[in-house]
Amino acid sequence: MAIKNVLLYCFAAFYFSFNLQAQVVEPVTWETRSEKISETEYDLISTATIDDGWHLYSQVVPEGGPIATSFTYNENTGYQLVESTIEQDGKIVDDPVFEMKIKFFENKAEFRQRIKVLNLELSLVEGEVEFMVCDDEKCLPPTYIDIKFDLQKAKTVGKIINNSAIGVPETNTLNTLQDSKIINPVKWRTSVEKLTTTDYVLVSTATIQKNWKLYSQNVEEGPIPTSFNYTLKDGVTLEGETREEKGKVVMDKVFEAEIKFFKNTAQFRQKIKVANTDITSVKAEVGFMACNDTQCTPPSYFDLEFDLTNTVKGEDLTSANEEDKGDSRGLWSIFLVAFLSGFVALLTPCVFPMIPMTVSFFIKQSQSKAKGIRNAIIYGLSIIVIYVLLGTIITAIFGADALNALATNVWFNLIFFLLLIVFAMSFLGAFEIVLPNSWANKADKQADRGGLIGIFFMALALAIVSFSCTGPIVGTILVEAASKGGVAPVIGMLGFSSAIALPFALFAAFPGWLNSLPKSGGWLNTVKVVLGFLELALAFKFLSQADLVLQLHFLEREVFLAIWIAIFGALSLYLLGKIQLPHDSPLKHISVGRLMLGLLTLSFTVYMIPGLWGAPLNLISAFPPPLDYSESPYGVGNSQGGGTSSHIDLPEGAHLLAPHDIIAFNDYDLGLAYAKKIGKPVMLDFTGWACVNCRKMEQQVWVKPDVLSKLKNDVVLISLYVDEQIDFPEGEAPDSKLRPGKKLRNKGQKWSEMQTIRYKTNTQPYYVLMDHDEENLNKPVAYTPDAKEYYNWLKEGIANFKK
User: Fold this and answer.
1) How many CA atoms lie within 13 A of 398 on its CB side?
2) Percent of the chain with pLDDT over 70
3) Cβ distance 756 to 738 under 8 Å?
4) Do residues 455 and 382 make contact, with C-beta atoms less than 8 angstroms apart?
5) Rounded Cα–Cα distance for residues 694 and 199 (Å)
6) pTM metric for this prediction
7) Which CA distances in Å does 219 have to 186, 206, 368, 408?
């Protein structure tokens, strides 16, 4: 009954606001002032004058009630908030419309926010108040008013007004957020750091509620990433990308990808250059999404403004880069992988035979053992310098920030795919990748000069001659390092070259170890061929990434797994001696080590086969496309799930929701019309493509037989995706009801506003059972991981529909 009355209120608000013949009503006017408490403390006072017959609601409103009044202050480094905004006593009544006790204000209401000033030159504080008002007949939609406080005109008061003097609510801000269904877990504030007369850093700071997380800008698969859209006037240019803090990276089991997010606070920094001194501010819009363990908010957009006249001294981003500091663990992983790759490169036919030859040369040509060791160490250091220079050149050409963008670009993924195919064919013996002979000849001539320069050119000659073996490995490392961006290519080359150089120094210091080295032979070519198979398998990961971005469905999960099964199956046969390549030496028997490696790859091949029938393959979940990106969501040979044929005639606008085979609609009107036609209740599923907990419900709760039976046979499912990015036709975007003066961006915002206005909540997942008159059959529920509880909820609502 309460929900019905809420709907009447919302309908009245809509009608009242948009009826062309109606008078524009503004029953609340706001005034602001400030009071100086001490040299560093002020009270920001917002006073609402309310017309007779109208009432303004408190900041603390019970669940299911009207929109609460809320204040947002644009904080910067010049001041900080002291606790929360406090309000007067107000009036508490048993509201007959919402059927609950609600606190509201009549005639006048005063709200106070204590601040502590950190910059004594601060003169202005700005913010925004959101509120909703009603009279006995109607309600107005939520309204947003900008508020400003002039500290220079602050009145000095004789005593500090304590909280009890103006009636502090018994519940604090945290409880308010818990009691309200409208969730705003992320608050934004802005500040500006001045570097030079023309260079500034725009700082956007997010304060994130406990147990919630805000996602990084660099999320490729999964939740909606945070994004910044700067509105630039003539004379203002962006310098580089918006940088972010370290954050936390975890392997998300639902999205099967590494996802970076922030907790508690997050800071984003954008460097700009301002050529026009008349410009005093820069505006931007931040788009973001937040989740906790049970729910997610829809994509949200918040306007930011940066005051260039109120700045603090800052450091250049190039010398204080939080993101680079935060990526230290990623750089260490690049170093370790490259280091291990260097050891693998040592075991190739181009490098391994050079170890005893080069070390013996230094020892024999030197006047003493100590000098031989010194020369070998210098030789190893020269190898490191050469490869680090290569990584530095790559970074300098493309730019530290551009590499990550290149690595995630469709065309560069295709280029990486082709590049790795070429490397693989080279390792398999189709051809050799060699640098021009003239380069090696010139290096050899310089090596004859002797001394430090001669040793350096000996190392350069080794790098050139061995390129046919080391080139593909180096290229693969650079490709992988590009996905990290920044100085990752330099770190990768440092790790790779350190592993190459280490044996020369060690064997020069301990020449007796040379006798323990295995003799060169056919096993070196085996190492090279194994690397070729691995390069071939890795190449299809990049092709798959491009296919996923373009949604071509050319390389779906089954095709990808079939290719990998074929590649590793062929590798197994090669290691077991069943396949020989033209350049292989005759194989009379296989060693125990080769046999063990062959059995390992054969086991891996067999492990992947059930993936064709829908097995998750957790060991390699980061490589193949996700389970739902497949020809058959149920696995090869299975065209249905739960007993409903996938070939039934579907009603207009419906589709089969995989892998459950539930008839589902993504359009509200079509779904409701179909429900009326067949006489079944409607289940609204407010969800999101990037909603982690929505996927958990679908994968862990909906699959239970009792629940699945209800969803397939007893209700009409309408799934409304609040992050759907389908734009409205040009000129047809409706006005936003929650952000007056702005248009809806896409279909997702339409469903998000519908949920917020109708059900006073904005988080997903959120499930509603309703009849054909759009009245609720029982109380809606959110994330419900207990399958029995969720089944009982479905059963109750369906039973109420049949009464």
Assistant:
1) 25
2) 72
3) yes
4) yes
5) 44
6) 0.43
7) 18, 17, 57, 11
User: What whole-number distance in Å separates Cα of residue 675 and Cα of residue 668?
Assistant: 11
CA angle 749, 205, 486 (to 5 degrees): 95
Least confident of 124-128, 482-486, 527-531: 482-486
What span, in angstroms and rounded, lies between the C-alpha atoms of 800 and 803? Answer: 5
User: What are the strands, taking DSSP E only, across 551-673?
Assistant: 654-657, 662-665
DSSP notation for 86-114? EE---EEEEETTTTEEEEEE-SEEEEEEE
Q: What pLDDT does 98 receive?
A: 67
Q: Got the DSSP string for 571-585? A: HHHHHTTS---TTSP
Residues in the chain: 803
- 223 vs 131, which has greater pLDDT? 131
Cα distance between residue 628 and residue 737, in whole Å: 35
pLDDT of residue 13: 45
Instruction: Name 755's Cβ contacts closer than 8 Å, sequence gap at least 6.
Output: 298, 686, 720, 722, 761, 762, 766
How high is the mean pLDDT of the chain?
76
Amino acid at 609: I
Tokens of 458: 């000996």
pLDDT for position 164: 30
* Residue 686: how many other CB atoms lie within 10 Å: 28
Asked if the model's pLDDT at residue 763 lies above 60, the reply is yes
- Answer whether 491's CB lies under 8 Å from 334's CB: yes
CA separation (Å) from 371 to 374, 436, 502? 5, 33, 17
8 A C-beta contact, residue 127 and residue 74: yes
Neighbour tally for 222: CB within 10 Å: 21
pLDDT at 465: 62
Rounded CA separation 721/718 (Å): 10
Tell me the CB-side half-sphere exposure of residue 502, using CA atoms within 13 A: 13
Q: Give me the torsion for CA of 489, 495, 497, 500, rounded to 10°.
A: -150
Q: Which of 665, 669, 684, 688 is nearest to 300 (CA)?
A: 688
The continuous run of DSSP H or E covering 282 comes out as strand 281-288
Among the residues of 428-556, which ranges form H helices?
437-447, 451-465, 467-482, 488-509, 522-550
Asked if 495 and 337 count as a contact pair (C-beta separation under 8 A), the reply is yes
201 exposed, middle or buried (CB, 10 Å; 0-12, 13-18, 19+)?
Answer: buried
Mean pLDDT is lowest, of 203-212, 450-459, 774-783, for: 450-459
Find out whether 235 and 275 touch, Cβ atoms under 8 Å.
Answer: yes
Q: Rounded mean pLDDT of 371-385?
A: 78
Q: Which residues contact 235 (CB under 8 A, 6 or more apart)?
A: 274, 275, 276, 278, 279
* Residues contacting 298, CB < 8 A, separation 6+: 289, 688, 722, 723, 748, 749, 752, 755, 762, 764
Bridge partner residues of 687 (DSSP): 721
- Compute the average pLDDT of residues 367-395: 75
Provide Rg for the chain, Cα atoms: 33
| Top-confidence residue, 134 or 254 | 134
Query: Assign residue 83 a region: left if phi > 0, alpha if psi is -120 to 50, beta otherwise?
Result: left
| Pairing assessment for the beta strands 227-231 and 281-288 based on DSSP bridges | antiparallel
3-state secondary structure of 358: helix
CA distance 713 to 572: 48
Residue 432's SS3 state is coil
Residue 318 has pLDDT above 60, yes or no: no
Give the C-alpha separation, 132 to 736, whole Å. 16
Structure token digits, residue 579: 């396949």
Three-state DSSP class for residue 463: helix
Distance, CA of 692 to CA of 251 (rounded, Å):
13
For residue 770, the model assigns a pLDDT of 93
- Angstrom distances, CA of residue 69 to CA of 45, 131, 143, 761: 14, 4, 10, 15
Q: Quick check: 602 pLDDT over 80?
A: yes
- For β-strands 300-307 and 281-288, DSSP reports them as antiparallel
